[in-house]
From TrEMBL:
Keyword annotations: Signal
Entries under SUPFAM superfamilies matching the protein: Periplasmic binding protein-like II
This protein's name: Polar amino acid transport system substrate-binding protein
Lineage of source species: Bacteria, Bacillati, Actinomycetota, Actinomycetes, Propionibacteriales
Ranges for domain Solute-binding protein family 3/N-terminal: 42-259
Length: 270
């Protein structure tokens, strides 16, 4: 049986949203330079739709990434505008200027930094394996030799390639498609972002076992802006202020109370 490796090399994205629908809206006025950002404007934030990152309950928008992005925009003195879209649409929308920032559990990686600018981290990645109830997969070492689904375009494919030598990776359009493959017996497990596991268990058409969760300590989550965007420094300062003044910890506790505090934030004094 192969041992897992905990060295997480780069990839483009992580833990995208659980996507079932949603299209991007047209361009809207935004604060496109430091001067306009300082006096107001709109920060258009690309998001996916999935609990606990960004979701709505009885018409009220909630979510960890929603709360963080909204607080960042307010700290910058601009109005946040959230634009829901499919995960695969986020980077093209950022490139074309349809949105100003991505706030969808994206991992900061060397590959991504070749084209985009990433903020200081506002979370650290947790990943998980999901399997049908009664499955023989009871630990992450049990996936050796198995068919494992990932959402196409996320970092999870890269994780599996680096950490497991004997896994057959099956790409799915989104989380719903991956769970459907589990139900039909086409795959043995689904590898995805741990923050979304509870929501998947609740909505899955089949009974799933409790997720197998572990932390990818070297995979920090950050906001993404276009390369050279002067607002990055303001975004970084607001995040750092939120960590120092306790606002970050309050938001983290609201959505991830059970998750241990990463060393990344202990070092910042949380």
């Amino acid at each position: 049986m192969n041992q897992t490796k905990f060295v997480v090399a780069g990839a483009v994205v992580l833990l995208g949203a659980i996507v079932f629908s949603g299209q991007s809206s047209g361009p809207a006025p935004s604060a496109n330079d430091t001067a306009s950002a300082s006096v107001g404007g709109t920060l258009r934030i690309g998001v996916g739709s999935g609990e606990p990152a960004y979701y709505k309950t009885d018409g009220v928008t909630k979510g960890f990434d929603y709360q963080m992005a909204r607080s960042v925009a307010e700290g910058m003195g601009v109005d946040p505008e959230f634009v829901e879209m499919e995960f695969r649409q986020l980077y093209p929308a950022l490139r074309s200027g349809k949105i100003d920032m991505i706030g969808a559990q994206v991992t900061k990686t060397p590959e991504g930094e070749r084209e985009f600018d990433f903020s200081t981290p506002y979370f650290v990645t947790y990943v998980s394996f999901l399997a049908a109830e009664g499955s023989s997969i009871r630990s992450r070492r049990d996936v050796d030799g198995k068919n494992v689904a990932v959402v196409d375009g996320t970092i999870h494919e890269r994780f599996l390639e680096e950490q497991y030598e004997d896994v057959n990776i099956i790409r799915a359009r989104d989380a719903a498609a991956a769970v459907g493959s589990l139900g039909r017996g086409e795959v043995d497990a689904f590898f995805y972002g741990a923050p979304y596991a509870a929501s998947i268990l609740k909505r899955a058409p089949i009974r799933l076992a409790q997720p197998i969760v572990y932390q990818a300590e070297e995979a920090p989550i950050a906001f993404v802006v276009r390369e050279g965007d002067p607002r990055k420094e303001r975004i970084d300062r607001v995040i750092e202020d939120m960590v120092v003044n306790g606002e970050w910890l309050k938001i983290k506790t609201d959505y991830f109370e059970a998750d241990p505090l990463s060393e990344v934030f202990r070092e910042k004094g949380v």
